[in-house]
Amino acid sequence: MLDHIGVQVSNYDTAKAFYTAALAPLGSKLIMEIPREHTGGAGVGGFGSDGKPAFWISDSKKRAAGSNDAHVAFSASSTEQVDAFHAAALAAGATCNGKPGPRPQYHPGYYGAFVTDADGNNVEAVFHGCTGPAA
Asked: Are residues 37 and 84 in the same domain?
């Protein structure tokens, strides 16, 4: 059901050092950092194991106005499910925070859609196996 979660931190570099140390005994490490040119200047990094970042931190000072601290991404088994999630969430009252589509800046094959719920949380559905024209 859950693919990954993210939290806002007050100082990205401090939090990165903390989580690098604290998660090491659990077998997790910093796996990916999103280039700042893709994040509006915010530090964004994902921790995990086996090559998959599942816990993300991002600089709260760069948070978009009206957004909340929480990000949760749900696993989808196809691009069609991602599209259906986005349509259903909008119909249920969410606002669009990123239309369905490929996100190659995350990794090849990443296909996601983002909405903001009524409480300002960033909610996503993601499929990791996108190939072909949409990839």
From this structure: no
73 with 123, same domain: the answer is yes
How many angstroms separate the CA atoms of 117 and 68, rounded? Answer: 10
Alpha-carbon distance 72 to 53, whole Å?
13
Query: So what's the pLDDT on residue 37?
Result: 85
- d(CA 42, CA 83) in angstroms, rounded, equals 27
Q: Taking the model in full, what pTM does it have?
A: 0.73
| 82 inside domain | yes
| Whether residue 88 is found in the same domain as residue 106 | yes
Phi, psi of 58 (to 5 degrees): -150, 155
Domain membership of residue 51 as a residue range? 7-61
Are 45 and 34 within 8 A, CB to CB? yes
- R_g (Cα) of the chain, nearest Å: 15
Phi/psi region, residue 101 (left: phi>0; alpha: psi -120 to 50; beta: rest), is left
